[in-house]
Design goal:
nine-stranded mixed β-sheet; globular; alpha+beta; about 350 residues
Length: about 350
């Protein structure tokens, strides 16, 4: 009996030694870069050559820009836009672009309110006029904006169809796509697919500008903690933080990201455009952060909900099983949905939806 107990004890010790010896020692690697017109930060946890894995991921993101950016002449999106114009509103895309165009068009139609799609991939004729990323952006001539709108047909995804084979039909041949409201989110979706194929990466945080993806687990087993920027304009300040499990996408849109002040009128214009008016969206919000299970959707929804406002966004958020954080110009914060958010900035105040909406000015 005593020999059996000793044998069991020895076997237990051997198992513990074997388990400890086989358990992977997790490393971490973090790197800041620039891609898709924004600062990127990638942190990886796991084993193997994490530095090389990060290089491969950021290279993939940069290659994606060569596919979906209208500013790159030979990108698939630019070729599609030229084809639409040359073939009287008909074009064809292939590969992942079919899914990205289809998904962005669906979200655009779901966001329809007040006679407009509050986020629209067919807004290219307007974004080219404004070009907020140029060195010296200016307010376009009113006549040029009106011509771009052309009865709201050229800037309206409701007049565009795409089939499963990638054939696109637009009622207006001057229709031009711009995936800027979805692009960073698409980038996080692409990175997710890469991470899921790598058994050596156990956790990651991917930040492509205002779109963030958290994957897997942190080494300490705790939830991921993602900071939300203070929309007052100081990039060093934090509004608060979201605590979440892995496989979560977080995107923020705001009036502080890309903007300029007109020298003649002193009016401030920012990059989120209203497809109905052709000018910057009129809203009391300064930022909107959306959390859901898709990068493209979180990115597109943050723009749509920013334009809609908190109250009108509720139905859209429920449709996509998403949560959101709204911040207004009076520094009120409203959290919609099941979201673990900690406000960390004393300049702001958490309020209910009713108080948030009644505080509009």
């Amino acid at each position: 009996m005593r020999r059996q107990k000793k044998l069991v004890l020895i076997l237990m010790i051997l198992c513990m030694i074997l388990f400890t010896g086989c358990r992977r020692q997790l490393d971490s690697y973090s790197h800041t870069d620039f891609a898709m017109g924004t600062v990127t930060n990638i942190t990886l946890y796991g084993t193997g050559d994490l530095e090389e894995k990060e290089k491969n991921i950021i290279e993939q993101v940069k290659n994606l820009e060569d596919t979906i950016s209208w500013r790159i002449e030979d990108s698939q999106l630019s070729k599609m836009n030229r084809e639409l114009k040359e073939n009287h509103g008909k074009a064809k895309v292939s590969g992942d672009m079919i899914r990205w165009i289809s998904q962005s068009l669906k979200l655009s139609r779901d966001s329809y309110a007040d006679g407009r799609n509050t986020v629209d991939p067919a807004i290219g004729t307007l974004t080219r006029l404004w070009d907020f990323e140029s060195k010296d952006p200016k307010v376009p001539e009113a006549s040029a904006i009106q011509k771009a709108l052309e009865g709201n047909l050229a800037v309206n995804s409701s007049n565009i169809d795409i089939d499963k084979s990638g054939n696109i039909t637009a009622e207006n041949k001057n229709t031009a796509f711009d995936l800027g409201a979805f692009g960073k989110g698409i980038g996080t979706d692409v990175v997710k697919e890469t991470l899921e194929k790598d058994d050596e990466i156990t956790g990651a945080m991917i930040a492509l500008g205002g779109s963030i993806y958290v994957y897997g687990e942190k080494p300490d087993g705790e939830k991921w903690k993602v900071g939300v920027q203070d929309p007052s304009g100081n990039s060093g300040n934090v509004l608060g933080s979201i605590q979440t499990d892995g496989d979560t996408f977080i995107s923020t849109s705001g009036d502080y990201e890309k903007y300029f002040v007109d020298e003649e009128t002193g009016k401030r214009y920012f990059h989120i455009l209203d497809p109905k008016t052709g000018y910057s969206v009129e809203t009391n919000l300064t930022s909107c952060t959306v959390v859901c299970d898709s990068g493209l959707n979180s990115d597109g929804l943050s723009t749509a909900c920013f334009s809609l406002g908190a109250e009108k966004s509720q139905e859209l958020l429920k449709k996509y099983d998403a949560s959101a954080i709204f911040v207004d110009k009076q520094k009120h914060v409203y959290v919609s949905g099941d979201l673990d958010f900690d406000l960390a900035n004393d300049d702001y105040k958490m309020v209910s939806l009713e108080k948030f909406e009644s505080g509009k000015k």
